[in-house]
Amino acid sequence: MQYRHTYRLPESELAQLAYLFVAPPRGIDEVLGERLGTAVNAWVANHPYSSLTQEDHGDRIVLVNTRPGYSWRVLELREPGELALFRALARPRNPATLGARVPGGQHEAEVLLDRWTVLGLLFHDDGHVVHVAVDADNPLFMRARQREARRDDWWTAGEFDAPAPSDTTGVACAAGSAPSPAFAGDALDR
User: Beta strand 134-135 with 52-56: parallel, antiparallel or unpaired?
Assistant: First the structure.
């Protein structure tokens, strides 16, 4: 069913793209499914107003957080170890190698990684860490904020079977989803 909405091709062509298998459910139970559903609903309700941005001023990095669930709003990184580590985390890094990049070494890196994980600044995956703050002057981010002001005019979750407005032409949407206001039509704006 998902392929029909994603690719919008005749059934005969869809059958050539992928195979669907039927198997007994082996995933999450109802309790975990409900928790996941609640989390997804909270994300949908909050994501248009939620951001984590960073601005590097050379001698300091200013982080601004509007995400729900975190008690902090502005954080300034000023110490040489903080600045070096945060800049290094613009790309995924192995925590074991970060100590060589940070004044204060491995211990300083571990303390900061633990602190920043609690603050929601980092994403951990497969033994690597990366910070998740976007540049405050990112043109896509700025366009997203402008579109956010207009989004209520056209954004209605689950109603994307009708033709999309002109600034989302060419953006494919899965059933029941919508293009992110941050990226809808950005390729067309260039």
Answer: parallel
Q: Kindly provide the b/e burial profile for residues 166-188, where b requires at least 16 CB atoms within 10 angstroms of the residue's own CB.
A: ebbeebeeeeeebbebbebbbee
Q: How many residues does the chain have?
A: 190
Write down the domain spans for the chain: 2-47, 50-135
Residue-wise pLDDT for 107-165, tens only, equals: 999 999 999 999 999 999 999 999 999 988 765 555 555 565 555 544 444 433 333 33
Determine the 3-state secondary structure of 70 from DSSP: coil
Q: Cα angle at 137 between 131 and 138, to 5 degrees?
A: 65
Q: Could you say which DSSP state residue 103 is in?
A: T
Per-residue DSSP letters for 40-69? HHHHHHHGGG--EEEEE-SS-EEEEE--TT
The domain over range 50-135 is classified in CATH as 1.10.357 = no
Q: From CA 48, how far away is CA 149, in angstroms rounded?
A: 10
Q: Return d(Cα 93, Cα 113) in angstroms, integer.
A: 11
Q: What is the pTM of this model?
A: 0.58
